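Cross-check.
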Amino acid sequence: MKNILRPALVLFAVLSALTGLLYPLAVTGAAQAVFPHEAAGSLVQRQGQTVGSALIGQNFSEPGHFWGRPSATAPMPYNAAASGGSNQGPLNPALAGAVKTRVAALREADPTNTAPVPVDLVTASASGLDPHISAAAAQYQAARVARARHLPLDRVIALVGQHTEQPLWGPLGEPRVNVLALNLALDDAR
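Predicted model, tokenized:
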């Protein structure tokens, strides 16, 4: 029994140290050396205060801010501890009802806007934490934001253009806008 138990315990201790301590420390150290900003959570600082992360969406609801994708996290939106989608398929009546409610809220917030509502403004991302919206979703909201902030529409559209990121992989994907970065730029434009 002793001949079997001792090697098993030694192997358990060695593998635990390798996979539970050394490997995570090595990966964390490499990440901090190569990508220090990203490894620290891509935190966005403003006047010495952390105002958010470039990787996690925030719940903007004021008319003078651009709104992000709906969040599927509960009990509060953009809760990184509860990341996950709603798991509702396209034929699910709950999803159809939620989309109708969101479209109605967007129409109520800007009754003069008769353009089609971009899909990413009424559907949550797979993680429920997406910090980006499509360039079309930002353009859709530009008039409402300009009116609420008493800014010229062309200035708001120019800010959207300045904060539009091209797809990482060229033709794969579409241009996107980080909502937090755009809203911070709007706050500075006052």
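The chain is about 45% helix and 10% strand. Residues 97 and 150 are 34 Å apart (CA to CA). Passed to J.P. for a second look.
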